[in-house]
Amino acid sequence: MAALSIQERKRLRQIGHTLNPVVMLGDKGLTENVIEELARALNDHELIKVKIVAEDREARAALIAEISEATGAEVVQTIGKIALLYKKAAKQNQKLSNLVRFAHLSN
């Protein structure tokens, strides 16, 4: 997967600013069901926020890296306990994709 350009990251962060977390991860970490839910959300929306409630910064960073690897998503940005993830859908859903719904923000 090619790394995102600075312009692409900026655009994704603008869109991500309006989003709410769709998945929250707790102490149990990354389970098979959570990975499936993340994959489904990424496939539908392409750009999602994930909230990680682990207190330890290193544990959060490790979990975010694990999520990225398990789902094939690119980490656009992390701020505190929130990670913004992007994965281009094979077939973009015009109704669900956050990139389509918030395209007006990047103009």
UniProtKB/TrEMBL annotation:
Name the Gene3D superfamilies on file. Answer: YhbY-like (3.30.110.60)
Recorded hits in SMART domains, A to Z, give: CRS1_YhbY
Q: Which domain of life is it from?
A: Bacteria
**This protein's UniProt keywords:** RNA-binding
PROSITE patterns found in the cross-reference section: CRM
Q: Which residues form the CRM domain?
A: 2-98
What PANTHER family would the database entry show?
A: RNA-BINDING PROTEIN YHBY (PTHR40065)
What is the name of this protein?
Ribosome assembly RNA-binding protein YhbY
Originating organism: Acinetobacter pseudolwoffii
Lineage, uppermost ranks:
Bacteria, Pseudomonadati, Pseudomonadota, Gammaproteobacteria, Moraxellales
